[in-house]
Design goal:
This protein is an alpha/beta fold. About 35% of the residues lie in helices and about 10% in strands. It has helices at about 45-60, 80-85, 90-95, 105-110, 110-125, 140-155, 175-180, 200-205, 225-235, 270, 330-365, 385-390, 395-405, 435-450, 455-460, 470-475; strands spanning about 130-135, 165, 185-190, 210-215, 240-245, 265, 285-290, 300-305, 310-315, 380-385, 410-415, 420-425. The strands form three sheets. A seven-stranded mixed β-sheet has the order 1-7-6-5-4-2-3, with helices on both faces. The chain has a three-stranded antiparallel β-sheet with strand order 10-12-11, covered by helices on one side. A hairpin with an 8-residue loop joins strand 11 (about 410-415) and strand 12 (about 420-425). Helix 11 packs across helix 14. The structure holds pyridoxal-5'-phosphate. Pyridoxal-5'-phosphate binds next to helix 6. Pyridoxal-5'-phosphate (PLP) binds near residues 73, 138, 140 and 285.
Length: about 475
């Protein structure tokens, strides 16, 4: 049912709260050029009206708290609420970012600085790195910071570097970050087994390569088994190895990027450690580096003093400088820190094992019904193709829309780009076998309907307020303005 605008439900004079008369003398009015000419048009409703309005709107939301959300690459897992409670503690939540600039301010917020410092240490241990920065505010932002440090490294050595190498299975942000930093991008094709073609790499690479960026597991959900050889090739040309660890839940406690030849790694803590991803909410993309890159880490850096207190270093000639206001998205870091301590070493290993087990379970169960272009053990996600279904006129998009009617968020579709009619399923480690089995059942139903009654798929969704919007118009002629007399 369509919910009316809150303005349309307004009744003149209705009110949600009574405010006592002010006992304070009125201040002199603002200058005329700074005051409104007309009264603000605000809706007038009772508290109950407001609560019902927003509760009903929120029920139209698809969220991890309400539904299964196997959106590949995005790790839409359930996040433990105690991490949220930690971030909401008044000592963290009420902190003013200007505190550090006050005389003695660092001492006042020493605990928060320690939390960032300790998070950097924990992430260094988890990833096998020598140092970390928690400044970047998203995965792509972390990539950009990493590439800028690689650039600073090459400049300091007088290296003439022109391009960054990525495989065609990399996440789109990898070539974008390299290009934003001013590098050309060279794309290496993948082999039929889904891994980077090392022979093609050997013939493409020259001393002008600044770095090789590997999304690992790659966007096919496969681990690049040739990483050691790839990193030897890179290092023999003084190119650095970049690990896109956005999906670290696939390898937690199993392998450390720093142990297999990588010099830089970024982690999406808003996928792996305790903050939900998606919806454009705040994230954090901490970046870890090997010792050769430590001098270039962004500012400010948190320093542990001899007496055990913490201070902030805001100047450093070699650093690439500031990447974010203040200390990045601090609340997200509090959640990540809490999550890591809460789970501990064994818990983190369990995360990786369950994430991988769940994806492989789905892959095996759905293999008889959908094309599986890379039929081998996957990591935390598996990629099917709806190519077989297109023969009956049903596309990956139709299957995605059908799932919405069954109250399941669709998997990522049409990505990775190298798979036609791709459906990229990431169940995450947090879902129960019952939920996963229900998803499998519904996908099998979709496969069967494709043959018996494809119109059901083509006409879905039927249970949503809007069926299939014209996606081009929704993007090009966006109209979110409401007419309420303003
Ligand atoms: C999500 C993701 C990114 C980008 O992270 P953002 O926080 O959305 O910028 C980069 N690489 C991979 C592999 C990802 O899954």
């Amino acid at each position: 049912m369509k919910t009316p605008l809150i303005f349309d439900a307004s009744v003149k004079g209705r009110c949600a709260a009574t405010i006592p008369a002010s006992g304070v003398p009125e201040a002199s009015p603002l200058p005329a050029n700074m005051t409104r000419i007309t009264d603000a048009v605000l809706p007038e409703l009772s508290e109950l009206d407001v609560v019902r309005h927003f509760t009903n709107l929120s029920r139209k939301n698809f969220s991890v708290d309400t539904h299964f959300y196997p959106l590949g690459s995005c790790t839409m897992k359930y996040n433990i609420k105690s991490c949220e409670s930690a971030a909401a503690l008044p000592g963290f939540n009420g902190l003013h970012p200007f505190y550090t600039y006050l005389p003695g301010g660092s001492k006042e917020i020493s605990g928060s600085l320690e939390l960032i410092y300790e998070s950097e240490r924990l992430l260094s241990e988890i990833c096998g790195m020598d140092g970390f920065t928690c400044q970047p505010m998203a995965g792509a932002h972390g990539e950009y910071a990493g590439i800028r440090m690689i650039e600073a490294y090459h400049k300091s050595k007088g290296n003439n570097k022109k391009y960054v190498i990525v495989p065609d299975t990399s996440h789109g942000t990898n070539p974008a970050s390299a290009a934003l930093a001013g590098y050309e991008v060279i794309t290496i094709p993948s082999r039929p087994d889904g891994e980077m073609d090392i022979d093609a790499l050997k013939s493409a690479i020259t001393p002008e390569a600044a770095a090789i960026m590997l999304t690992c597991p790659n966007t096919l959900g496969l681990f690049e088994t040739g990483v050691r050889e790839i990193s030897e090739i890179a290092h023999s040309h003084d190119a650095l190895m970049y690990y896109d660890g956005a999906n670290l839940n696939a390898i937690l406690g199993k392998v450390r990027p720093g142990d297999i030849g990588f010099d830089v790694v970024h982690v999406n803590v808003h996928k792996t450690f305790g903050t939900p991803h998606g919806g454009g909410g705040p994230g954090a993309g901490p970046v870890g580096v090997k010792s050769v890159l430590l001098p270039y880490l962004p500012l400010p850096k948190i320093v542990k003093e001899g007496d055990g207190s913490f201070s902030v270093a805001s100047e450093d000639d070699k650093s690439i400088g500031k990447m974010a206001p203040f200390f990045g998205n601090f609340g997200v870091l509090v959640k990540a820190y809490t999550y890591i301590l809460l789970l501990g070493k064994e818990g983190l290993i369990d995360v990786a094992e369950k994430a991988v087990l769940n994806a492989n379970y789905i892959m095996e169960k759905l293999k008889p019904y959908f094309d599986l272009p890379y039929d081998r053990r996957c990591m935390h996600e598996c990629v099917f193709s709806a190519s077989a279904q297109t023969k009956n006129g049903v596309s990956a998009l139709d299957i995605a829309k059908f799932l919405i009617d069954r109250e399941i968020h669709p998997p990522t579709v049409y990505f990775p780009l190298i798979v036609k009619e791709a459906m990229m399923v990431e169940p995450t480690e947090t879902e129960s076998k019952e939920t996963i089995d229900r998803f499998i059942e519904i996908m099998i139903e979709a496969a069967k309907l494709t043959q018996t009654d494809p119109a059901v798929l083509k006409n879905s969704p039927v249970n949503t307020p809007i069926g299939r919007p014209d996606e081009t118009k929704a993007a090009r002629q966006i109209d979110v303005k409401m007419n309420c007399g303003l």
